[in-house]
Amino acid sequence: MEIGGFDTTKNGLRISVDWLSFTVKTFTDWKTLSDYFGLSLEHFQDDMIGSYGYKKRARHMLYDISILYDGNDDMGIHVDVSGSAVGYFLQCYLNKNTCSVTPFGSVAYEVTSFDDTVLSDLLKEILDMGQLSRLDLAIDDIGCNYYTLSELREVFYNDLYTSRFRGGYTEIYKHSKSGCSGSTFYFGSVNSDMRIRIYDKQLEQNSKKNDSVRIPWTRWEIQLRKERATVTASFLAVGQTLPDVACGILSNYLRLIVKDNVRDSRCSTAPKWSDFLAGIKKIRICQPVSEKNLDDKKKWLMKFVAPTLSTIYELDGDLSFIYSMIKYGSLHRSIQLQKLVQASQYAELYQVE
């Protein structure tokens, strides 16, 4: 079973998930949520000062994972997973959902399709029981086989590009006390739901480690928030690959050109840009997200909840726990679930097909 947190394109670019933030309202206790995703409670320090309207925060002591809790009743629990911790988070989720008892005496992870990955399953669950607030994808050109920062500066300065971002690009230059200096190109504003950052990743690594070793490395980061994060996660959840999604989004928002026409929109695409994207088609993420219906909910329950419920029933010998879950659930339905109930009642009352 592939974890799916990173992948490589045919032309050698490394694509990865660099940030994951989501909110789940089906849990009221952060410890229950942590255990649900396979995170060990002993690795967390809790009762820290919260943010974003949450009073408290639990922080992983080894990996950059934060869980915000104790907010208003309708806020649920919020989870932030930085890029350095995404692989660990996915591995914990895999371990939690791996069955150690098989007819062959080995371990197994249940899948509905051989195209599924741990990442796609995780995103399906998050989309079913909560919502994404941020999803970052990184495209790493290790070795700068296509573009260095100085080459890109020349391209952008001479307007050899077209983009969907208003106002063009911004370059911010930074200098640190350690002597590591560099610049970052930004497309999109700080508050935008879609933003692209381009910078020298190896320079960043050296500044953290105070290391003078230089390996050319250009990183393209796509930061997605709210609806754009949700739509992107939906593509990944149904089996589209990280390279197709990340490069497809980048291709849709930015194009480097050859100035062979007075109108930029009619200019030819720069050959190196075509090679960089390796023929991956554009992906549009400005589209409405389809509402989950009752059948979608049932499929999720069957895949992720049924195995646990059957185990509890076998151990308890009766349905008392399941009945208590139904009673508890009826008192803690989200607005979306309540709308499903009301729609069903309306259809039954007026015999709407």
Topology at a glance:
Layout: E1 6-8, E2 14-24, H1 30-36, E3 44-49, E4 56-60, E5 65-69, E6 77-82, H2 83-96, E7 98-99, E8 108-109, H3 118-129, E9 130-142, H4 149-157, E10 161-163, E11 169-175, E12 181-187, E13 194-200, H5 201-209, E14 217-225, H6 226-237, H7 242-253, E15 254-258, E16 268-269, H8 271-277, H9 294-316, H10 320-331, H11 335-350
Antiparallel strand pairs: 1-2, 2-6, 2-9, 3-4, 4-5, 5-6, 7-8, 9-14, 10-15, 11-12, 12-13, 13-14, 15-16
Helix pairs in contact: 3-6
Q: How much helix is in the residues?
A: 25-40%
Shape by Cα distribution: elongated
Helix/strand order, N-terminal first: EEHEEEEHEEHEHEEEEHEHHEEHHHH
Please, what is the average pLDDT? 85
Give the termini distance in whole angstroms. 41 Å
Report the structural category. alpha+beta
Note down, in words, how this protein is organized.
- With 353 residues, the protein is of the alpha+beta class.
- Helix content is 38%, strand content 26%.
- The strands form three sheets. Strands 1, 2, 3, 4, 5, 6, 9, 11, 12, 13 and 14 form an eleven-stranded antiparallel β-sheet that branches. Strands 10-15-16 form a three-stranded antiparallel β-sheet. Strands 7-8 form a two-stranded antiparallel ribbon.
- Helix 3 packs across helix 6.
- The longest helix has 23 residues, at 294-316.
- The protein starts with 5 loop residues before the first strand and ends with a helix.
